[in-house]
Amino acid sequence: MKVLLLQDVEKLGRVGDLVEVKNGYANNFLIPRGLATAATKANVNEVKAKQHAAIARAKRELAAAEETGKKLQGKLVTLEAKAGEGGRLYGTVTNQDVADKLAEMDIHVDKRNIQIEESIKVVGEYDAAVRLHSEVTVPFVVAIKALED
């Protein structure tokens, strides 16, 4: 019996594969558990359409990430924070603070995607990066200045 896999099945195939299995295996295991469906023309076309839509969505997401990356490439993000003697900050500058400043610059990124090597506790410049997509990581510099009263 030919079935169309709806999920990855170990030692059988991946999502969207058309595989030949024994009738009992298909009717008693794969189909009741939602792992596969009978390979009708309509089902095959539906899975192909979903795959094409997923590929198109992935291309759009990559293009959007690259566009945002071009805006951010080489930028200097300057934040002001209260500091005491020796430039030591009264608190830590967080990824959320950097994300908020980027949003003011019309560059919207999720704080979880911002990567800063060390904690920002002293006035100065720090290297940072934003992971916009699995294939797009953009470096930038975060500058911390003491807030003047």
Q: What report would you give on this structure?
A:
By secondary structure, the chain is α+β, with helices and mostly antiparallel strands. It folds into two domains: 2-62, Ribosomal protein L9, N-terminal domain (Ribosomal Protein L9, domain 1, 3-Layer(aba) Sandwich), CATH 3.40.5.10; 69-146, Ribosomal protein L9, C-terminal domain (Ribosomal Protein L9, domain 2, Roll). Helix content is 34%, strand content 33%. The protein contains three helices and nine strands. The strands form three sheets. It has a four-stranded mixed sheet. Strands 2-1-3 form a three-stranded antiparallel sheet, with no helix packed on it. The model has no long low-confidence stretch (mean pLDDT 91).
Topology:
Elements (H helix, E strand, L loop, with lengths): L1 E4 L12 E3 L2 H8 L5 E3 L2 H32 L3 E6 L6 E6 L1 H10 L9 E3 L3 E3 L1 E10 L2 E11 L3
Parallel strand pairs: 4-9
Antiparallel strand pairs: 1-2, 1-3, 5-7, 6-8, 8-9
N-to-C CA distance: 78 Å
Number of helices: 3
Quantity of strands, as a count: 9
Please, what is the average pLDDT?
91
Describe the structure concisely for a colleague.
By secondary structure, this protein is of the alpha+beta class. It folds into two domains: 2-62, Ribosomal Protein L9, domain 1; 69-146, Ribosomal Protein L9, domain 2 (Roll), CATH 3.10.430.100. The protein has helices spanning 23-30, 41-72, 95-104, and strands at 2-5, 18-20, 36-38, 76-81, 88-93, 114-116, 120-122, 124-133, 136-146.
